[in-house]
């Protein structure tokens, strides 16, 4: 008789563990999915039109000097000249 009581308590213990796992596993999966997705956010810092223009000029200058990659000093000087010319063309003064 004690074996029957012991077997039924083991069965109910296994059922309660199974029920817990039925709730815990899906929650863990959902949490993993939610945290692994990267979202684009915009910076809280105010960006001025001059900042945007400078970034655009730097990007264009970097693309224009890509062939000068073997001489970093010459590339840096040429990029600076191109950025200055670009910003002046947009109406900015230093």
Figure out the total of helices: 3
By secondary-structure content and strand pairing, the structural class works out as: mainly alpha
**Order of H and E elements:** HHH
Mean pLDDT: 76
Radius of gyration, Cα only, in angstroms?
32 Å
Characterize the main sheet. Answer: none
Instruction: Say how many strands there are.
Output: 0
Helical fraction: over 70%
User: What share of the residues does DSSP label as strand, in percent?
Assistant: under 5%
Shape: elongated
Distance between the termini: 95 Å
Instruction: Give start-end ranges of low-pLDDT stretches.
Output: none
Structure description:
By secondary structure, this protein is mainly α. It has a domain at 49-90. The protein is 73% helix and 0% strand. It is built from three helices and no strands. It has helices at 2-36, 49-64, 72-89. Helix 2 (49-64) packs across helix 3. It is elongated.
Considering the chains and any ligands shown, give keywords for the structure.
transmembrane, membrane, transmembrane helix, 94 residues, mainly alpha, 3 helices
Walk me through the topology.
Elements: H1 2-36, H2 49-64, H3 72-89
Helix pairs in contact: 2-3
What is this entry, summarized?
The chain crosses the membrane at residues 20-36. This protein is mainly alpha-helical and 94 residues long.
């Amino acid at each position: 008789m004690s074996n029957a009581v012991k077997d039924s308590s083991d069965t109910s213990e296994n059922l309660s563990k199974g029920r817990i796992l039925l709730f815990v596993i899906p929650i863990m999966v959902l949490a993993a999915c939610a945290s692994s997705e990267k979202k684009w956010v915009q910076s809280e810092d105010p960006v001025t039109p001059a900042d945007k223009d400078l970034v655009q000029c730097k990007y264009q200058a970097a693309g224009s000097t890509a062939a000068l990659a073997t001489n970093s000093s010459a590339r840096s000087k040429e990029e600076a000249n191109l950025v200055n010319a670009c910003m002046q063309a947009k109406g900015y003064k230093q």
